[in-house]
Amino acid sequence: RRQELSGMSAEVMQMGVELMGASGFESDVDMLALAIRSLGAASASPCRMEIGHVGIFNLLIEGIDANAEDKALIHRYISAKNYAALDDVLDRVEVRGAGDGDKMAGRAIEILRRLPRLFGGPDALAEARKLMDGTGDKLTEMLAYLERLFAALEGSGMGGHVMIDLGLVNQAEYYSSLVFKGYAEDTGVPVLSGGRYDDLLSDFGEDLPATGFGLDIGELTASALRAKLGAREGASDNDKAPKPNRKLRLAVTKGRLERSFIGLMEKAGYDCSALADKGRKLLVSLPDTNIELFLAKAPDVITYVEHGVCDVGIVGKDTIAEQGGTYYEIMDLGIGRCKFALAAPKGSDFFGGYGTKVVASKYPNVTSKYFEGKGMDVEIIKIEGSVEIAPLLRLADAIVDIVETGTTLDENGLEIIEDIRNVSARFIVNVTSMKLRKEEIDGLAAALAG
Fold first, then answer.
1. Which of 63, 74, 161, 171 is the most exposed place for a label (fewest CB within 10 A)?
2. SS3 labels along 154-180
3. C-alpha–C-alpha distance, residues 362 and 423, integer Å
4. ∠219-225-11 over CA atoms, to 5°?
5. Do the Cβ atoms of 414 and 299 come closer than 8 Å?
6. 431, 390 in Cβ contact below 8 A?
7. Are the C-beta atoms of 153 and 146 separated by less than 8 Å?
8. Helix (H) or strand (E) holding 290
9. Higher pLDDT, 37 or 11
């Protein structure tokens, strides 16, 4: 489901292929080869296909002692490549199961922790093979199947277009084994998706194996029109591995986060002097790098990354929690630290009485989820400016806002009633860019992490 006013259609027009009644290696190779050829013919820009196996995730998740809520979170964070959040929930699961002595459960947690990072070429397969060594025949057989598929496509001259992603688990309940997605450079979203769904037709009275894929006609048509109008420089050769033809583009949140991030870049060895002397330039190239950067308001950072016009975004977790979106949240940068908090006038009894409380906030979605979790019915008023004034003017009984030091609250007669969650800056990546520009993005993330 795409957000209203996101600039993306809520409906997707697809054209696809279904193969019913055939199973096994040859049919999967044929379907993948057809998908790659179809994407190459339909795309106006360099493209790439990724393949995965949902059976690996399903087997691992069954092997750990986690409740349904934690399993759902693990699934979500692997799919979104949200490494930090995945580590947090797996740490909880590991602590709860620390006393049971189940070594295989520990191995499963170890592999799940690495699963979203296992994407790329033969190196990803080699790492997965080492991780899964000694875990049993089922896991190693699934991995070996992916290796055979990869080798067969490589032998057909399509290896430059194919990568492995063991974190490709977003529809694990629908597909039964092989899954794949296709990406084109100048589209911010996958333009092809498919896989094997051998159990689905039995729901309709036919016990037949099946596989297939669909192409996003709307995105591919828009890409072709952009190419025709000259929006892209040069032409792609779909017989070669895709090579991006522009610099790696970063969108950075203006203000306090901007200053902290520039400091982080400088510590990582990047020359950011061009940002100090940028004048009225909106897009600034960093000297001696393949990186260009521009500053935007926090919600716009997410929009630019989702649409694929920026590869990477630097944005606070507060904006992510409020706005949502589709991207990979690969790193907590550890800058811009603050917290969401519920605050009310000093000495007031916010949780007392029987009337419906009124809460003012710049973050109505976060506020709504917080009070839903407490089972409390409140009236929420959205405020764009200084939210602290709302209780003083008797517009609201309390506020939910970002708090760094608490000085502003104190000066306006407010106090924190309850901390909601910690917030810091995150490194988010466009889904397509992560697949087509993995080495560049990994290099930047590693430099910042160091």
1. 171
2. HHCCCHHHEEEECCCCCCCCCCCCEEE
3. 15
4. 25
5. no
6. no
7. no
8. none
9. 37
Q: How many CA atoms lie within 13 A of 252 on its CB side?
A: 27
120: helix, strand or coil:
strand
Confidence check: pLDDT of 413 > 70? yes
pLDDT at position 18 is 92
Q: How crowded is the C-beta side of 369, counted as CA atoms within 13 Å?
A: 10
Q: Residue 104's Cα: distance from chain center in Å?
A: 28
Q: How many residues make up the chain in this entry? A: 450
| Confidence category of residue 276, pLDDT binned at 50, 70, 90 | confident
The pLDDT of residue 59 is: 93
Task: Give the SS3 label for residue 263.
Answer: helix
**Tokens coding 75:** 């699934």
3-state SS class at 148: helix
For residue 363, the model assigns a pLDDT of: 95
Structure tokens belonging to residue 250: 């970063």
Q: What average pLDDT score do residues 271-282 get?
A: 83
Rounded-to-integer distance, Cα 153 and Cα 171, Å: 24
Amino acid identity, residue 155? G
Q: DSSP for 334-355?
A: --S-EEEEEEEETT--TT-SSS
Q: What is the DSSP string of 1-47?
A: -PPTTSSS-SS--EEEEEEES--SHHHHHHHHHHHHHHHHHH-SS-E
Residues 237 and 46: their CA atoms lie apart, in Å, by 7
For residues 31 and 22, is the Cβ–Cβ distance under 8 A? no
Q: Are strands 248-253 and 378-382 parallel, antiparallel or unpaired?
A: unpaired
Among all chains, which residue has been given the structure tokens 């109008």?
A: 229
Which of 163, 181, 85 minimizes the C-alpha distance to 120?
A: 163
CB 384 within 8 A of CB 362: yes
Query: Angle between the 68-79 and 54-62 helix axes, to the nearest 10 degrees?
Result: 150
Q: What is the pLDDT of residue 184?
A: 87
- Cα 107 to chain centroid, rounded: 25
Neighbouring CB atoms inside 10 A of 282's CB total: 8
Which residues touch 261 (CB under 8 Å, ≥6 apart)? 252, 253, 314, 333, 335, 425
Half-sphere exposure of 188 (CA within 13 A, CB side): 20
39 residue type, one letter: L
What is the spatial distance between Cα 431 and Cα 189, in angstroms, rounded to a whole number? Answer: 6
Amino acid at 382: K
Cross-strand pairs, 50: 163, 181
State how far the alpha carbon of 190 is from the alpha carbons of 48, 180, 194, 319, in Å: 10, 10, 11, 24
**DSSP β-bridge partners for residue 165:** 119
